[in-house]
UniProtKB/TrEMBL annotation:
Region (Disordered) residue spans: 1-27
Lineage: Bacteria, Pseudomonadati, Pseudomonadota, Alphaproteobacteria, Hyphomicrobiales
This protein's name: DUF2188 domain-containing protein
Organism for this UniProt entry: Bradyrhizobium algeriense
Superkingdom to which the source organism belongs: Bacteria
Length: 81
């Protein structure tokens, strides 16, 4: 027979300060990897280049570039070889 688990006192959520920031910038461009903002860029070209380089190295990651001016995320996909 299976025993039921009893729920103890709730555990307080720990503050995580070492995680990557999830706040998106108010100006410029940001590299967003698997839903987390990782780096900020001043130009769209440099953000797109960094995103494509990362996607080439790790094709399973979800890589996007966030445009703060238009408040828009652009998915980065590589063309099949």
């Amino acid at each position: 027979m299976r025993q039921e688990r009893t729920q103890g006192a709730p555990v307080a959520a720990r503050a995580t300060t070492s995680r990557a920031p999830t706040d998106l910038p108010t100006s410029g461009y940001a590299l967003v990897v698997d839903g987390q903002a990782k780096r900020e860029f001043k130009t769209q070209d440099s953000a797109n280049q960094a995103a494509k380089d990362l996607k080439r190295r790790f094709p399973n990651l979800q890589v996007r570039v966030y445009d703060a001016e238009r408040n828009r995320l652009e998915q980065i996909d590589l063309a099949p070889a």
